[in-house]
Amino acid sequence: MQGAVLLAAQPLRVKLLGSNNSSTGNPSATAGAGNPSLMAAAGPKWAQKTVTLPPHRRGCHLITPKIMKEIGNDLSEFKCGLAHIFLQHTSASLTINENYDSDVRSDTETFLNNIVPEGTSAPWKHTLEGPDDMPAHIKSSMFGCALTVPITNGKFNMGTWQGIWLCEHRDHPTARNIVVTLNGI
Amino acid sequence: MQGAVLLAAQPLRVKLLGSNNSSTGNPSATAGAGNPSLMAAAGPKWAQKTVTLPPHRRGCHLITPKIMKEIGNDLSEFKCGLAHIFLQHTSASLTINENYDSDVRSDTETFLNNIVPEGTSAPWKHTLEGPDDMPAHIKSSMFGCALTVPITNGKFNMGTWQGIWLCEHRDHPTARNIVVTLNGI
Amino acid sequence: MQGAVLLAAQPLRVKLLGSNNSSTGNPSATAGAGNPSLMAAAGPKWAQKTVTLPPHRRGCHLITPKIMKEIGNDLSEFKCGLAHIFLQHTSASLTINENYDSDVRSDTETFLNNIVPEGTSAPWKHTLEGPDDMPAHIKSSMFGCALTVPITNGKFNMGTWQGIWLCEHRDHPTARNIVVTLNGI
């Protein structure tokens, strides 16, 4: 991270959300189930960056490491917040799913191809950009082009098995731009 | 809510978004269609909590009351903001849909089961965790694992018939964790 | 925009997210791929407005111009932020997809109608409100009722070909309310 600009740090109102079975706050606790989580006071921060992913072949790809490489340093400065990840394209998609077995990703690609007709039997009017184009648009709306992930103690607060997927729906892949916006304290 | 920590209250810039047919602001107005809504000045606030839902059987379940029970007190302190609700799992999903007739929920479960093949005729490679596991992953990406809801005057600003659903896609249900993040003024 | 209330402007912490191939910040740069983007210091701002869209016939409709007409002036005051767009209904949906060829929108409507059974052959129990009602609920959860779009330099930071669609899933269209929440600096 170059050129960090810290114009001012300032107090702001933060809340300790207690659990039902605890009556005392624990400043060092993580936001785990049933544990209170005290967020350190700091000025509200915004950060935004466009990340360009290299071309990926048609299918579903785990991109959590790539995203973390680009924003991990910035992320580490947020105690509590939200990360918004926005794909600027209409023929690919972002989703959160299993991060371990690559068969889950190829099975998901199989599902998408089975559910959205492609080729001569498909009913599409929009065919100028190739037989895979209209199916790609539909798949993009099915999974969506944006994700919002909670930030806790400098990290994405996802489940153990969750990862961020880029789903490329075109046959001839191209680089894809993602706008990442971080907001928090 | 135990242990609220109010480090400082501070002014910040807020905006009155006027409607086309009104030229005066009304501080007590709700953000209804065509009505201007003036948000009270207060320091920006963040709150975050992990809520554990007990096991729910396979199918779609209305969980708005459960969420409100856990965060309602905190929510009431936000005049304007956003609530982010994040499910930390890849074989269940969150969606917003009808909150009245339970038939809508069971019909939606019927749809999901009809659209995603399961069992011996299914083409999945990922079958180690049971025949319902890969279909569960697919359904999770179809509906998604996260919701963002506007907050207005201390409440979720949803439509009259909208509710938050937890859709459990596994046959053997388990407890599910949800990270709720509130941000606003 | 009537009645803007500027209670105070205040410094806050902002971050310059540098690219890998640049070591100097450029305050006037856009958040383009590989370019650093310095966000101007200003107080955090929240704005919220309910926009009522007139009835649209069943199908997919590009509504970016309508949204911009309602919030464009306010949007222009945000250097960096997020726009949340929330549809308060369970039988219509919002999605981001192609903004140019209307065939993409009609093909998407064709897909939705092919994938969700309607009429006498459909397995739905919830039929009191007409044969198009239960399919409308399902389509609403497939595409979702909410979008979050990054704001950069006073504008939606979407891709060249991206637009916001309202998908009306009922046969007899009605006016639809959308709650727009802007947050940023």
Automatic annotation (TrEMBL), chains A, B, C:
<dbReference type="InterPro" id="IPR035917">
    <property type="entry name" value="YjbQ-like_sf"/>
</dbReference>
<dbReference type="InterPro" id="IPR001602">
    <property type="entry name" value="UPF0047_YjbQ-like"/>
</dbReference>
<protein>
    <submittedName>
        <fullName>Uncharacterized protein LOC111476694</fullName>
    </submittedName>
</protein>
<dbReference type="Pfam" id="PF01894">
    <property type="entry name" value="YjbQ"/>
</dbReference>
